[in-house]
């Protein structure tokens, strides 16, 4: 690389960082704003706990359905244009979701349809951001993943925290729609970054794993890919159950809706600290097994506390929130670290998120149905403990320093 080329690359890398963080800022608020408002939505629409569970599950299921095909969109349009398109679709889907009003069934179809559309748009960002980080910051993947995860979690926390006060002021419909403004801002900034990095995609995949020969080699034949997928899916299931139902668990124990919304925000906000602490720690370690298992133990302790000592619910929320933010970081990081190239990272990201989110999407549904059947949140927390134990096992295997084309060797 010549000096002039290096100089030209400097500003583009700085701009890339800013724009990646803006994309990350959009990957959760449209989803996290729903949890604190779910009882208000149910009261206005007459939806049952199972129907509200479907509302919480739809974005996750949408992520699962669309994530596997994102690499095809990226191959056709390129990563930059794919993300720009996704930001526009995200804004449109978020606005569409806010249109329903009145009792069932009138208008509620837009609530569900808009949720599916915004979930599809978020899938594009979810899959491509790890590939962008792998491509442009190959020597700092854990650190950069920590930065964008902290941004993602922080914006998600703000959306949860302001949801109830905003709904009291402008109504829950406009509160849901407000998340579209951030997508519009991100799209405008992203559109100004040009395409110098897009050309790098042609140059970088010179590794044999990105040549035409391995294209017929399916990731589904790699044990490592399945370990990563299992870990991603199980941690996502825990996250989305808590995201959808933690405010209801809190109000079940006598906490007000507004306070429950803020505690959900705190649950996510403490994940910022987790991301900023765990990211550099992972940067210095050869594998992630100890971190993944330790975080599962911490998460299990928080959930067990909610079930058996609910008097200390705020303490357990913060403990579980720290573990949740850190496990999200670990799951995104191992997607990049278990791949050798950006192209491979995009394929692995699509598999892990496609299958993983379909698994995770069942979580809010099962939780809602279980509450309808038992009238209590305690059985849900017991089931969560089992899921967390499985997550720890998957994390041990996904955290090994191996690659998807290694045949699963240790």
TrEMBL record:
Top-level division of the source organism's lineage: Bacteria
Keywords: Membrane, Transmembrane, Transmembrane helix
InterPro entries membership: MFS, MFS_Cyanate_Porter, MFS_dom, MFS_trans_sf
Compartment(s): Cell membrane
Cross-referenced Pfam families: MFS_1
Domain called Major facilitator superfamily (MFS) profile: residue spans: 14-403
Predominant subcellular localization, coarse grouping: membrane
Transmembrane segments: 46-70, 82-99, 111-133, 145-164, 170-190, 224-246, 258-278, 290-309, 315-339, 351-371, 377-398
Membrane topology recorded in Swiss-Prot or TrEMBL: Multi-pass membrane protein
Protein name, per record: CynX/NimT family MFS transporter
């Amino acid at each position: 690389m010549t000096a002039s080329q290096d100089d030209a690359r400097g500003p583009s890398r700085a701009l890339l960082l800013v724009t990646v963080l803006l994309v990350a800022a959009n990957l959760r608020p449209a989803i996290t704003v729903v949890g604190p408002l779910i009882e208000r939505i149910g009261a206005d629409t007459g939806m049952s706990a199972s129907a509200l569970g479907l509302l919480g599950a739809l974005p996750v299921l949408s992520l699962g359905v669309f994530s596997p095909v994102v690499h095809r969109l990226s191959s056709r349009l390129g990563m930059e244009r794919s993300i720009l398109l996704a930001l526009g679709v995200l804004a449109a889907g978020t606005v569409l979701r806010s249109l329903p009003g009145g009792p069932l069934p009138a208008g509620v179809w837009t609530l569900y349809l808009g949720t599916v559309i915004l979930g599809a748009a978020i899938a594009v960002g979810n899959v491509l951001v790890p590939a962008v980080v792998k491509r442009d910051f190959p020597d700092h993947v854990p650190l950069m993943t920590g930065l964008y995860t902290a941004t993602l979690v922080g914006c998600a926390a703000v959306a949860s925290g302001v949801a109830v006060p905003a709904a009291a002021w402008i109504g829950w419909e406009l509160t849901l729609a407000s998340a579209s403004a951030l997508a519009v801002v991100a799209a405008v900034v992203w559109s100004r970054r040009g395409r110098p990095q897009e050309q790098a995609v042609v140059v970088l995949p010179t590794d044999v794993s990105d040549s035409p020969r391995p294209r017929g080699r399916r990731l589904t034949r790699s044990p490592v890919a399945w370990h990563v997928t299992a870990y991603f899916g199980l941690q996502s299931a825990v996250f989305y159950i808590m995201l959808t139902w933690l405010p209801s668990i809190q109000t079940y124990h006598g906490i007000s809706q507004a306070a429950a919304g803020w505690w959900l925000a705190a649950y996510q906000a403490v994940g910022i600290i987790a991301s900023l602490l765990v990211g550099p720690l992972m940067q210095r370690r050869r594998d992630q097994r100890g971190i993944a298992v330790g975080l599962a133990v911490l998460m299990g302790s928080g959930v067990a506390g909610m079930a058996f000592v609910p008097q200390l619910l705020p303490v357990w929320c913060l403990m579980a929130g720290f573990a949740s933010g850190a496990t999200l970081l670990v799951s995104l990081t191992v997607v990049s670290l278990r791949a050798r190239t950006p192209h491979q990272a995009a394929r692995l990201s699509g598999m892990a998120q496609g299958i993983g989110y379909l698994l995770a999407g069942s979580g809010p549904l099962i939780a809602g149905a279980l509450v309808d059947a038992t009238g209590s949140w305690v059985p849900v927390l017991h089931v969560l403990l089992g899921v967390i134990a499985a997550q720890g096992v998957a994390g041990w295997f996904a955290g090994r320093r191996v690659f998807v084309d290694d045949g699963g060797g240790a």
